[in-house]
Amino acid sequence: MDTTFPNVPHQRCMTHVVRLAQAWLTRFPKTVAGRELRTIVSSPYSVTTQKGRDNWNMIFNHWCSIHYDFLKEKSIPLGNGRPWYTHRRLRAVRSLILGAQPELFTFLSVADTPKTTNDVEGGLNSPMKALLRHHRGMSPKHREVLVFRFLRRRQIQKYQH
What we know:
Blueprint: H1 14-25, H2 32-41, H3 50-66, H4 68-71, E1 74-75, E2 84-85, H5 88-104, H6 118-134, H7 140-160
Antiparallel strand pairs: 1-2
């Protein structure tokens, strides 16, 4: 994506990142590190300024450094099995957030950028999917024309209002 559209800013959908992180952490994490991380990943919605973004990133990065050794702990099975990371889900959430961090708060620096994909998913994709499902017997070329006409009609309606 970066090579195809190098000058287009990217915004990760905050809702998807938070929901996935919360699902992996569960509602009631058993460890102190898990409870702290759940609090951190539940709070990016309250970030409304670049200073708030910097503060949120600092808190998350501080959590990573405090629990660095804890996240490296491995469980060793009885017998000849291979050891595995004891806190795999915490590590997964850490990786998710680290990967999303550069694009999690783009909406603060790029005007008219939403922090979620709700407008795209419910406002654009959902009716388009329903239209394609209703006309599922069409050839790919006809489906392409159908989508083009659908998008063009939405564009015209948008500018008439």
